[in-house]
Design brief:
heterodimer; A: 113 residues; mainly beta; 6-stranded mixed sheet; 56% strand; B: 115 residues; 0% helix; globular
Chain lengths: 113, 115
Amino acid sequence: DQQVKQNSPSLSVQEGRISILNCDYTNSMFDYFLWYKKYPAEGPTFLISISSIKDKNEDGRFTVFLNKSAKHLSLHIVPSQPGDSAVYFCAASAGTNAGKSTFGDGTTLTVKP
Amino acid sequence: DTGVSQNPRHKITKRGQNVTFRCDPISEHNRLYWYRQTLGQGPEFLTYFQNEAQLEKSRLLSDRFSAERPKGSFSTLEIQRTEQGDSAMYLCASSLGLTGSDTQYFGPGTRLTVL
């Protein structure tokens, strides 16, 4: 039973356009959500997070939206740059067990110049 | 560099051998996690420590796997009698352990290949 799902294995966008990566979860106990970026041969790098008390968090070109009723979150990157090309993982954790994260299988983003 | 470090970065071993990996967390972080990642999947939780106490172990962690964190600083993950199915990237992460908003920071990983 996969509690965090990223249904799109890959996404390709043109440089300068918006990239939207999606993530769905099933466990209603999750209250903290994170996005990580991963380049080949490196560990995941923390990108942005959101607590369940918010529905939006923004950091520069990156914005995460949370829809608790739909158990859905998305990461928006605008404008997309070729250096954003990487695998993006969505992760979720439950406050009662702070930090232990459940990850999706990732979406490979390719930004074309 | 004050990030999470892992050694070795790569390990090739023969089936049946024992291997040990080391993780050095960010110095002020009291939580340390081990994950395993295989191709095409996200990291899977194995175990974590709060200081030196091992608080949770995944059912993925068979009795061939053991982890320690003496003195609450660095951690080691040992795999005994390795099997080909153990081939994966082993990731270590650390965090402050904040309830409700805990962010884990990952090391570069140790890639294990069992021949």
